[in-house]
Amino acid sequence: AVSAGLRNLGVKAGETVALMLRTEEAYFEAFFGTLIAGAVPVPLYPPFRRSEFLEYVRRQRAILLNAGARVLVTFAEAERFAALIRAQTPTLEIITTVERLAAERTDTVLERSGSDDPALIQYTSGSTGAPKGVLLSHANILANIRAIGEAIAIRPVDVTVSWLPLYHDMGLIGAWLGSLYFGVPVSLMSPLAFLARPARWLW
To answer: What are the C-alpha distances in Å from 56 to residues 65, 70, 81, 164, 182?
Structure first.
């Protein structure tokens, strides 16, 4: 349904779609919906500290401009922040939510991707300068996942438990997509829940 919603917004194969979402179920729908539509997801971390809002807007604006994203998918509570970013980002035209995209009832058509086609653009944190994007192909991601599985000798009886955010490469590729590839269950918790009480991760 998300892929149909993106197509109805005019998103074309190869176009970038920014995902400014929390670590929750909606992230899965948005990420795969973007891939199914043939577009390229660009993970952004969501706003969480009001005191750093101006710096946050500056960083996200730089990423959106660099990626050329026309569409930003976010959650309802962050739409006001997203609107402020859009006002300063000429390439950004549409802000929407997973719920609005999923409300579309058009038939879903899977866009076929080759191993060398782009799978996502991962940006650095920009802690020592402007955020820099790395375009990862499907082959790149699969090679990374296989290397992780070999290094930790993952088995079918294993279970992944992670607090890493899905907009971070370790959370997205290592924890979630890796678990999907190897067919093992994954239990994800909110990074904020972990920070409030780290022992929850071990429990």
So the answer is: 14, 19, 10, 20, 35
Residue 48 confidence class, pLDDT cut points 50, 70, 90:
confident
Q: What DSSP string describes 36-63?
A: HTT-EEEEEPPP--GGGHHHHHHHHHHH
Phi/psi-derived region of residue 10, left when phi > 0, alpha when psi is between -120 and 50, beta in every other case: left
Q: How many CB atoms lie within 10 A of CB 70?
A: 19
Q: Whose CA is closest to 17, among 80, 102, 96, 84?
A: 96
> Cβ distance 184 to 154 under 8 Å?
yes
What's the predicted TM-score (pTM) here?
0.91
- The pLDDT score that the predictor gives to residue 47 is 81
Contacts (Cβ under 8 Å, ≥6 apart) of 112: none
